[in-house]
């Protein structure tokens, strides 16, 4: 690219790699975000055990090479992801990255997993700030809104609390995430102009490209679109998915056959996907 992004820091970044990275306008936020971002669910134990030192090294490598958007959540390792990411970010200039976290989903046991109340939302943001070691969060997303019993809680408690925290300078932009695309649309329609970003996952892959149908709606609402889990939570990789993966056995079988073929050819399925 001819012009370096505003997140470029001389002496920290590998300039050659940064110039090779593609950066896109992030909805109406004014941010210029790398096409590839870094998800940190792997800093928890979602995909097997990963020691903190390896995780920190991976974060540093990604940021130096030009990735400038990092996503985490309290639910990832029940704070472990945010904690390790915070350790990594101590050695990174604040200008060099945008950090996004979430509210609403927390514990492993279902009875305590979700809480979209105003009180818990504020507590969660304050805790994330401490764990990440930052003065403000670039993006805070409402996590997996399909699990709230009544969507009015999102509109009347979670969202207003995030807006207050934004006014206090503790966060800059507000987003929403979910797996069902129709739920995402419903939440956004119910709060016109109040969301800045939308995150969906596993919806722009070789086995599910349903995101495409909703892109015009998201763009019409000037939302930054974050497409997570481009490999279908491990389905479209040579390593394959974790035992907890929720998809149907037939889909797993098809993807396993594809990965075995790629292994025989010396190719990583994830690169093709």
Automatic annotation (TrEMBL):
<feature type="domain" description="NADP-dependent oxidoreductase">
    <location>
        <begin position="35"/>
        <end position="273"/>
    </location>
</feature>
<dbReference type="InterPro" id="IPR020471">
    <property type="entry name" value="AKR"/>
</dbReference>
<dbReference type="InterPro" id="IPR044479">
    <property type="entry name" value="LGALDH-like"/>
</dbReference>
<dbReference type="Pfam" id="PF00248">
    <property type="entry name" value="Aldo_ket_red"/>
</dbReference>
<dbReference type="GO" id="GO:0005829">
    <property type="term" value="C:cytosol"/>
</dbReference>
<dbReference type="InterPro" id="IPR023210">
    <property type="entry name" value="NADP_OxRdtase_dom"/>
</dbReference>
<protein>
    <submittedName>
        <fullName>L-galactose dehydrogenase</fullName>
    </submittedName>
</protein>
<dbReference type="GO" id="GO:0010349">
    <property type="term" value="F:L-galactose dehydrogenase activity"/>
</dbReference>
<dbReference type="InterPro" id="IPR036812">
    <property type="entry name" value="NAD(P)_OxRdtase_dom_sf"/>
</dbReference>
């Amino acid at each position: 690219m001819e012009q370096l992004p505003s997140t470029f820091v001389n002496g920290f970044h590998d300039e050659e790699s940064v110039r090779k990275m593609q950066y896109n306008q992030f909805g109406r936020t004014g941010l210029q975000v790398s096409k590839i971002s870094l998800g940190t669910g792997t800093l928890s134990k979602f995909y097997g055990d990963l020691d903190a030192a390896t995780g920190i090294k991976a974060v540093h490598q990604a940021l130096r090479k030009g990735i400038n958007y990092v996503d985490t959540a309290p639910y990832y390792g029940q704070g472990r992801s945010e904690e390790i990411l915070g350790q990594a970010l101590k050695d990174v200039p604040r200008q060099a990255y945008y950090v996004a976290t979430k509210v609403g989903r927390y514990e492993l046991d279902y009875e305590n997993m979700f809480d979209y109340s105003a009180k818990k939302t504020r507590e969660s943001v304050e805790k994330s700030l401490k764990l990440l070691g930052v003065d403000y969060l670039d993006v805070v997303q409402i996590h997996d809104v399909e699990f709230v019993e009544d969507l009015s809680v999102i509109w009347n408690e979670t969202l207003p609390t995030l807006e207050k925290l934004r006014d206090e300078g503790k966060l800059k932009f507000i987003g929403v995430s979910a797996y069902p695309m129709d739920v995402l649309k419903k939440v956004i329609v119910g709060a016109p102009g109040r969301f800045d970003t939308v995150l969906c996952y596993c919806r722009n892959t070789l086995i599910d490209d349903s995101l495409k149908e909703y892109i015009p709606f998201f763009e019409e609402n000037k939302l930054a679109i974050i497409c997570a889990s481009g490999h279908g939570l491990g389905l479209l990789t040579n390593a394959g998915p974790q035992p907890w993966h929720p998809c149907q056995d037939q889909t797993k079988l098809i993807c396993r056959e594809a990965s075995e073929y790629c292994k025989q050819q010396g190719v990583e399925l994830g690169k093709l996907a």
